[in-house]
Amino acid sequence: MSGTLVLGATGTTGSRTVAQLVAAGQRVRAASRRATRLPGAEAVRFDWYDPATHADALAGAARVHLVPPVGDPDPAAVMLPFLRRAGAAGVQRAVLLSSSAIPEGGPGVGAVHEALPGLFDQWAVLRPSWFMQNFTGTHAHARSIREEGAILTAAGTGRVGFVDADDIAAVAVRALTDDRAPNSAPVLTGPEALGYDDIAAVLTEVTGRPVVHRQLTYEQMRDRLVAAQLPLEFAAMLAGMDRAIAEGAEDRTTDAVQRLTGRPPHSFRAVVERELKSRQSSADTGPTR
């Protein structure tokens, strides 16, 4: 057994983790609900809520990168039985993607974080801050930027150490493949803590399109998320995270990316410029008729 199983392989961090593992010469099983093919990886079908897909996904895996089910307020209910099965199947190392906002034993994936060291001798829990790609990809913030020229939050003037998903993936690759597992839960941030007004200003400067930050109340944010079809409990949790940001909970930076990868984390401006250039390049080389 020598392969690495990456769950959520088509997602923001999962796809980058697969690509970086492949580039490092690793054997990768890329798991998703539709078994989507990714360059250099073996595609396998995996659904947290369909245990019939679990055994095939685990076949030959010595390591697993865990991305929790999206939108589930109690992911431990499906994740812990899978992790016990993974250990019995021979998986030796597990790396869990959590969040800087969720402590060990806290709500949601915090229960999985608490259980992981008791299930595997080799483990890591990655606790990234908010993704920089929330403003450039398919996240609700990116959509409202494109459609309304606005970022809507209940975070007030609070600051966040936003982190590049490429940096998260780089840490995940080291946690999965280094001779010794971290056996720790590093908080991953970018090089500086920024407010949403700062984010809007950088986007305006780099893209040339005006972007503003509109401040909502906790209740307005919760109701907006519910209107976007999120379950009420999950919407309340996300709006509560914004409120915590307003109170200063995410106003920090760490040296974890530098320490674990050997290079500094990318700045928000650099990420926006990189992704804008990538989109322009794709448009320039796209199909013609």
Q: What is the N-to-C order of secondary-structure elements (H for helix, E for strand)?
A: EHEEHEHEHEHEEHEEHEHHHH
Helix content: 40-55%
What is the radius of gyration computed over CA atoms, rounded to a whole number of angstroms? Answer: 19 Å
Low-pLDDT residue spans? none
* Overall 3D shape: globular
Strand order of the largest sheet: 3-2-1-4-5-6-9
Number of strands: 11
Q: From the helix content, strand content and strand pairing, which structural class follows?
A: alpha/beta
Q: State the separation between the terminal residues, measured CA to CA.
A: 48 Å
Percent strand equals: 15-25%
Number of helices: 11
Mean pLDDT: 94
* Main sheet makeup: 7 strands, parallel
Description:
The protein contains eleven helices and eleven strands. Helix 3 packs parallel to helix 4 (110-119) and helix 8 (218-227) packs antiparallel against helix 9. The strands form three sheets. It has a seven-stranded parallel beta sheet with strand order 3-2-1-4-5-6-9, sandwiched between helices. Strands 7-11 form a two-stranded parallel ribbon. It has a two-stranded antiparallel ribbon with strand order 8-10. The protein has helices spanning 12-23, 54-58, 76-88, 110-119, 140-148, 165-177, 196-207, 218-227, 232-246, 256-261, 268-284; strands spanning 3-6, 28-32, 42-45, 61-66, 93-97, 122-128, 150-153, 159-160, 187-188, 194-195, 212-215. Strand 5, helix 4 (110-119) and strand 6 (122-128) form a beta-alpha-beta unit. It is 42% helix and 16% strand. The longest helix has 17 residues, at 268-284. The chain is α/β, with parallel strands linked by helices and 289 residues long. The protein is globular, with a radius of gyration of 19 Å.
